[in-house]
Amino acid sequence: MTFYAQNALNGLAYGSLLFMIAAGFTLIFGLMRIVNIAQTAFFLIGAYIGLMLLHAGVPFWIAAALAGAAVMAAGLLIYRVFLHRYHADELTALLLTLGFALMLDDLALAAWGGDPQSVPPPPAFASSVQLGPLVFPAYWLTLIVLSALVAAGLRLLERRTMLGAVIRAGVDDEEMTRGLGINIDRAFYVVFALGAFLAGAGGVLGSPITGAYPGLDGDLLPLAFAVIIIGGIGSLEGAYVGSLIIGLVSTFGKALFPELSYFTIFVPVAAIMALRPQGLLGRKR
Amino acid sequence: MRWVVALILPLLIGASGPAWSASGAGGTLRVGVLIPETGYLAAPARFMREGYMLYLAQHGNKLGGRDVQTFIGDTAGNPSTGLTQARRLVEQDGASVLFGPLSAAVGSALVPYIGEHKVPAIYPIVSADDLTQRRTSPYIVRTGWTSSQTTQPLGDYAYKTLRYRRVATIAYDFEFGWQSIGGFVQTFQQDGGTVLKETWTPQTTNDFSPYLSQIPRNVDAVVCSFSGSTAINFFRQYKAFGLTMPLVCQGNATDESTLAATGPAAIGVVTALHYSAALDTPANKAFVAAYQKAYGHVPSYYAEGTYVGAMALDRGLAAMHGDLSDPLAFVRALRRLSIPDAPRGAITLDSYGNPVENVYIRRVEQTGGALANVVIHTYPGVSQFWTYRPQQFLAHPVYSRTYPPCNGCGAH
After folding, report:
1. Structure confidence by residue, pLDDT tens digits, B41-51
2. Better-scored residue on pLDDT, A53 or A86
């Protein structure tokens, strides 16, 4: 019983971490049809910037916000100069973001070196919590709560604000939205910025779990893809549910069938693709 | 990068002259150094480069009496890139000796090429057991260690001195993890110990929580084998998830290249390796002081490894009076070498081309504001075959996921 409870918590925490990446990924793809391969590289850069700020004595949460802002600025630059021309041209945009992912990777290596870095959680959350027979790091619990709050906030944004209405309209029918005289390009910028911010800040928030090292982005990318496929491309709720599913499946997979841990996460992916290609909460296009 | 350009530029300018082989006794010695300067192994690779360069700088850029021109090939830790780079170093840059690489996968991929082209090679770091056991090459000399060479004494130490009787293991799910754990299991079980569970984790694991939940809690100690960022994450999460059993690990896990980043989570971990920067001998103190002066940080085993590799190359070449025209004779001379004054202690090479050297049992302690691998016991003159006769040792299969069989798995 302890074993299952422990791994359920582990899985939720890992899924929460994945949501920080998947949220931006799904928003950007849903609205702009850009598969942003650089999303996990944003996460990595965010983690490194956060680490730099932490070393300079900046408090953890502020470091996360600042790193998010810095990555957002970089993301906006990339979008303004290159990507915005290709938002309907999926293959070109994909290759472009792949190129940026590789460049960001090498930039990170040049700037911060290859030393694997580990990031301490904020001091107030550095201890472990005793839950009956379970011992669980307090920070991981915090991350579960935090990620749920972010998901709720994003949902509010999507459902209850004017911007959200524009985004939903753009996801459904971009041409018609334009035809109604709505400046959807502005929404593109906002969504790309938001996605980059989430990934950058998520990099700092997730780094006490993942650490920061060259190649982290490549390790996370397949998981992010799996989340999107399961949840449904473009669906925020789908991204949250998908993240938790992938977190739980990969955790229980590793704990119960360690020999198969390389592909347990792709079992639900394959099942979804066969039975419900649009994803759990995605819509048919 | 600038110094690579500085090394390569004169070559480009000089390339208009007649091409000539540099393998004879006179002239400049061209050394092809293979290290993963980019990619996930870049951090230890930096130490490899520094160790090699320090030795050259201390010896007036001469090895075996000949001026040295160094060419760097970046393997990126990838076997096919490594092979391409080795080709480039030998066929275009005219390297007459290869030096490196880091990863066992690259090291193994180079073996056929080295044999075909009869290029002598020094392996200062690669530790894949069979390179000097069941699949030896007459052109390769290893100046480092085998993966199980350090953990065979560790298993013995854990049973006899630490008096552990029941352990569980957790390690990388590839060659290095299998072989280093295999060495421990072999001697620990032979002494009378029981291994209750073996857990293997994929190379890219950063979230250890599902694996930690599988480790039985009723053991005297947990045995681990990790390196780099994986080791950092492992130690931190082991502590965060409330596991309190003592840790006994292969020494790469607390290598000086990652020890500071691991932080307090590593304190108290007992490890085995053929080197420690905290080793209290005159030879090592001189090396550490020179290294710190040159690079501003303590060396790791990777740095000492290439330093000693360069030392072996220097002395082997000197024994041949600088003549490399017969690569086999050169390799034989290297294997006859004994190096009494290496930072890690005295080294001799066995007839399989692997060092016989001290293995140090270290414990991570806070000394003078920094973490260090303090040596608590020395196994002197340890062979890759431990105390077995080579023929007896080689009759067994190479250590793997399933060999030696774990004697208590499924019993708890």
Report:
1. 777 899 999 99
2. A53
**Residues contacting residue B220 through CB under 8 Å, at least 6 positions apart:** B163, B164, B165, B166, B167, B245, B246
**Neighbour order of strands in the sheet with B97-99:** B62-63, B66-74, B29-35, B97-99, B121-123, B140-142
B273: enclosing H helix or E strand: strand B270-273
Percent of chain B predicted with pLDDT > 90: 78
- Per the listing, tokens 């299998």 go with B178
Binary contact (B209, A135; C-beta < 8 A): no
CB distance B178 to B399 below 8 Å: yes
What type of residue is B235? F
User: In which band, very low, low, confident or very high, does the pLDDT at A99 lie, cut at 50, 70 and 90?
Assistant: very high
Q: Is A206 an 8 Å CB contact of chain B?
A: no
pLDDT at residue A266, as a whole number: 87
**In a shared domain, residues B111 and B193:** no
Instruction: Name the pTM for this structure.
Output: 0.83
Of B39, B228, B242, the CB nearest to A135: B242
Query: What is the signed CA dihedral for A119, A120, A125, A129, rounded to 10 degrees?
Result: 100
- For residue A247, the domain's CATH number is 1.10.3470
Same domain, B179 and B41: no
Q: How far apart are CA A51 and CA B120, in angstroms?
A: 44
Q: How far apart are CA B176 and CA B180, in angstroms?
A: 6
Q: Give the type of residue at B345.
A: G
Name residues 163-192 of chain B within 8 A of A (Cβ): none
A263 part of contact set with chain B, CB < 8 Å: no
Confidence (pLDDT) at A284? 65
CATH for B109: 3.40.50.2300
Q: Is residue A44 part of a domain?
A: yes
Give the domain extent around B224. 151-279+358-394
DSSP assignment letter at B399? P
Return the structure tokens found at B394. 């080689």
In a domain? residue B410: no
**Segments forming the whole domain that contains residue A237:** 2-275
Assembly ipTM: 0.74
- What pLDDT, on the 0 to 100 scale, is given for residue B15? 41
The answer to whether residue B228 neighbours chain A at the CB level (below 8 Å) is yes
